[in-house]
């Protein structure tokens, strides 16, 4: 049945909707809500920063939430001198960078094999990879520990690099799949005609077109590796192989804890992640949008 509503009435409804949507009072309410939401999200970071510049006397003196009366910038160099923190930072950087690299390379190659190459069992293999999304990281501590023990990999860098890479792989493949399925297969055929083999097509054609996914996979793998505590605490018991999350525990004593130093270490461990996300946020958002749009 045809719509008998006059066009002028329909246009008036659209204008009324636009007017309601852009009404000054509505805009003010939206800005107030966004300002409150921004404050709620940023205040914990501000609190952690000010907390790191206080002494125990000030913290226990009911000034936990306020600004420091005496700004103890010395907490930061003192934190670096205490508990071998430079070594812990080095361990975290090595493990995180290598885990990110392995995850990215393995995810790109696996996704290429699953989406661009025809072979029996590819759908089944993809389903097996996606099962990795359903397995909680810490539910696998015992079997992973037994495997690492049989391989004599405990108390080594690979004891963390390999598990971190393996548990990040499923999400990385899911992200890459959103990009590769949208790449026309005519490009593969054109590359074959020009003399490129499978590896040449992968390196010269597919990789440049999936660059937006690199930032998303990188930040996801970074967060998985940089902040993980349980694996790092169980698989690497040697002091010289500790990562930052495990090393922070050394600042807590049996009878006394210098909470200012703990806050300084937390700031130094947290802010690199925030800075990485700030610089990569646009790429991450664009990669999610590009991977979600088909056609």
Question: Key terms for this structure?
Answer:
globular, mainly alpha, 295 residues, MetI-like fold, 2 domains
Please give a structural write-up:
- By secondary structure, the protein is an all-alpha fold.
- The protein folds into 2 domains: 41 residues; 213 residues, MetI-like (MetI-like fold, Orthogonal Bundle), CATH 1.10.3720.
- 71% of the residues lie in helices and 0% in strands.
- It is built from 14 helices and no strands.
In short:
71% of the residues lie in helices and 0% in strands. It is mostly helical. Helix 2 packs across helix 14, helix 4 (75-81) crosses helix 14 and helix 5 runs parallel beside helix 8.
Itemize the secondary structure elements and their pairings:
Blueprint: H1 7-21, H2 24-51, H3 56-60, H4 75-81, H5 85-115, H6 122-130, H7 141-150, H8 158-180, H9 186-193, H10 198-209, H11 212-226, H12 230-235, H13 244-248, H14 259-292
Helix pairs in contact: 2-14, 4-14, 5-8, 5-11, 8-11, 8-14, 9-10, 11-14
Shape: globular
Radius of gyration: 26 Å
Structural class, from helix and strand content? Answer: mainly alpha
Q: Find the CATH superfamily of the largest domain.
A: MetI-like
Specify the CATH architecture of the largest domain.
Orthogonal Bundle
- From the N-terminal CA to the C-terminal CA, the straight-line distance is 33 Å
* SSE pattern, N- to C-terminal: HHHHHHHHHHHHHH
Relative strand content: under 5%
Q: In total, how many domains does the architecture comprise?
A: 2
Please count the beta strands (DSSP E, at least 2 residues each).
Answer: 0
Uncertain parts: none
The CATH topology of the largest domain is: MetI-like fold
Share of helical residues: over 70%
Q: What characterizes the major β-sheet?
A: none
The CATH class label of the largest domain is Mainly Alpha
């Amino acid at each position: 049945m045809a719509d008998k509503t006059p066009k002028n009435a329909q246009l008036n409804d659209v204008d009324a909707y636009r007017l309601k949507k852009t009404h000054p009072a509505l805009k003010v309410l939206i800005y107030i809500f966004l300002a409150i939401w921004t404050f709620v999200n940023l205040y914990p970071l501000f609190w952690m920063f000010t907390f790191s510049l206080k002494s125990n006397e000030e913290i226990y003196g009911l000034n936990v939430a306020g600004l420091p009366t005496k700004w103890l910038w010395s907490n930061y160099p003192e934190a670096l001198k205490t508990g071998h923190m430079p070594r812990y930072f080095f361990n975290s950087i090595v493990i995180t960078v290598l885990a990110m690299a392995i995850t990215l390379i393995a995810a790109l190659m696996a996704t290429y094999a699953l989406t661009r190459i025809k072979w029996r069992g590819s759908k089944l293999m993809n389903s097996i990879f996606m099962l990795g999304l359903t397995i909680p990281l810490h539910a696998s501590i015992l079997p992973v520990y037994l495997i690492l023990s049989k391989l004599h990999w405990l108390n080594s860098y690979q004891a963390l690099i390999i598990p971190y890479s393996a548990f990040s792989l499923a999400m990385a493949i899911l992200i890459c799949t959103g990009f590769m399925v949208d790449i026309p297969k005519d490009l593969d055929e054109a590359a074959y005609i020009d003399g490129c083999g499978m590896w040449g097509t992968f390196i010269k054609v597919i990789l440049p077109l999936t660059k937006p996914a690199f930032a998303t996979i990188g930040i996801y793998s970074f967060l998985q590796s940089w902040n993980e505590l349980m694996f790092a605490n169980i698989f690497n018991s040697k002091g010289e192989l500790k990562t930052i999350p495990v090393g922070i525990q050394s600042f807590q004593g049996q009878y006394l804890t210098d909470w200012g130093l703990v806050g300084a270490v937390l700031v130094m461990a947290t802010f690199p992640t925030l800075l990485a996300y700030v610089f990569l946020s646009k790429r991450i958002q664009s990669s999610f949008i590009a991977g979600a749009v088909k056609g």
